[in-house]
Specification:
The structure holds two protein chains of two kinds. Chain A is mainly beta. In chain A, β9 and β10 form a beta hairpin. Chain A starts with a strand and ends with a strand. In chain B, 0% of the residues lie in helices and 57% in strands. Chain B is built from no helices and eleven strands. Chain B is an all-beta fold. Classes of the chains: A mainly beta, B mainly beta.
Amino acid sequence: NAGVTQTPKFQVLKTGQSMTLQCAQDMNHEYMSWYRQDPGMGLRLIHYSVGAGITDQGEVPNGYNVSRSTTEDFPLRLLSAAPSQTSVYFCASSYSGPLGNIQYFGAGTRLSVL
Amino acid sequence: KQEVTQIPAALSVPEGENLVLNCSFTDSAIYNLQWFRQDPGKGLTSLLLIQSSQREQTSGRLNASLDKSSGRSTLYIAASQPGDSATYLCAVSRESQGNLIFGKGTKLSVKP
């Protein structure tokens, strides 16, 4: 059981480049989300999805795009990278069970924009 | 707007001590509260989840309590070990499949 898998683990971009951060989960969870973690800021929600075909914005959505064509995958697209997007990005998935909605996180993608 | 605060930001203790990490939140209308552990360069691992109707949850040497009316939660770690060294994050959710609002974490160092 792989859980939540994020690729790549590390990435360096130049300002203005675009890229897609991949996230896949094999637990058949309906809910998936993307967070960014910055020093002194904690984790902040970028976008989330409650199921295939449904996405919505979180706290810091500007400069990012998402889509959810399957239950398993939830890619995050940087349209035109900026130095302010240098961060660690985490993908998470969850389901509502008897113990509540425990969220499972991927190992993260460390992105540097020069 | 919900805000989550964790005190202290960092804590260093000798091995074997019992310790308490604190988490406070400004809006008591939460669905649940979770405590996570994050090791350097790694993702987050869920430790304990407390539903809003519960007062505490226990897992091994960890005990988390919730006082929703006062907007507080504590994570108690008994008989700390060097392997407990990590950053501990508290997060609250307003809905069952809701998004998490995180505190900035407490960085714990347990010295042998």
